[in-house]
Amino acid sequence: MPGSDARPRNTGQSPLHAMSIDVEDYFHVAALSNVIRPHQWDSLPSRVEQNTERLLMLFDKHQVKATFFVLGWVAERFPALVRKLSDHGHEIASHGYSHQLIYNQPPEEFRQETLRSKALLEDITGTAVEGYRAASYSITRRSLWALDILSEAGFTWDSSIFPIRHDRYGIPDSPSAPYSIETASGAVIREFPLTTAHIMGLSIPAAGGGYFRQFPYPLFRYLFYNASGSGARPQMFYLHPWEIDPGQPRYTNASWFSRFRHYTNLDRCYGRLERLLGDFRFGTVSDSYNTYDPDKTLLRSDQMVRLA
User: Roughly how many angstroms between the first and final C-alpha of the chain, as a whole number?
Assistant: First the structure.
């Protein structure tokens, strides 16, 4: 149970879970999009560089390699940060360019932004970028067409699909373990979904982010362990650099719900993350996926639509 002493420990035999960081600034988030517009971003004090470097130092301390999904907007302004992450042996993946919800974008706009972001990251690091994560997990039944564009652009895997019901994202009955998707054009892309625990017939999000900050840490640890089949299967964890930054500007004109989503327990998140690194074993998304013994699940995009 969540409060018991029977807790997971990080051992050499533990599954290698995926540690992923969505590299974006506090003003990029969807929860604040009603009060901060994209044309304002360049005029706001950026904190993404210092917060990401703080995470980098923490991962170095615990000898953890992570996958950093870097927003193109950030890469364009802080190329040295991206190069530093890569030089430290972390995996670089794409978080798109402008942090817009995919299902609100025309396909051609999404294609151009995706190609632009991928080229930026590859020019900075000198290595191919094969992984992608959508802003706010916005590959849903309304935007499965994006998988074809990702494949055309040269991406081989994605981590954008959350198998839950949510007001902004999710394909509720999609697989909770890694699988492959055959797109409408016949391409195949691997999917590493976001973590959900299954308790009493309910799917409970346990992937990180706001769930990590809002749930008491023992409860989150229990849910993450439950999702892994009591330590048998690798899972996906995610966080944003702004989530370890209680000193970021506060926008009191945002709705109460948006402020709750964004600001809850920012002062506790760094310490919780360090505890998590002691309780579970983490690596990059690619390394974690490669340790998983998939059951060869292959779903067509039209099947995905029916799962939503």
Answer: 31
Q: What is the pLDDT, as a whole number, of residue 171?
A: 83
Do the strands 16-23 and 67-70 form a parallel or antiparallel pair, or are they unpaired? parallel
> Do 237 and 281 form a contact (C-beta atoms < 8 A)?
no
d(CA 191, CA 177): 9
pLDDT at 12: 55
How far apart CA 154 and CA 176 sit, in angstroms, is 24
- Alpha helices of the chain — where are they, by DSSP H? 48-61, 72-77, 79-87, 107-125, 145-153, 209-214, 217-227, 256-263, 266-279, 285-291, 301-307
- What residues are paired with 131 via a beta bridge? 157
According to the model, what pLDDT value does residue 291 have?
85
- pLDDT means per 10 residues in the chain (308 residues)? 43 81 97 95 98 98 98 98 98 97 96 98 98 95 94 96 80 86 90 92 92 97 93 93 98 94 97 97 95 72 63
Range 231-261 burial, b when 16+ CB lie within 10 A, else e: bebbbbbbbbbbbbbeebeebeebeeebbeb
Tell me what pLDDT residue 95 has: 98
Tokens of 24: 């974006």
> How far is residue 35 CA from its own chain's centroid?
23
Closest by alpha carbon to 280, among 235, 217, 229, 219? 235
| pTM of this structure | 0.92
Q: Choose among 10, 17, 6: nearest CA to 227.
A: 17
Nearest-10 crossing angle of helices 48-61, 79-87 = 10
* 94 and 121 Cβ atoms separated by less than 8 Å: yes
**Rounded to 5 degrees, what are φ and ψ at 54?**
-65, -40
In whole angstroms, give the CA distance from residue 132 to residue 59: 21
Q: Which tokens in the block code for residue 156?
A: 């081989």
One-letter identity of residue 106: P
Give the type of residue at 162.
F
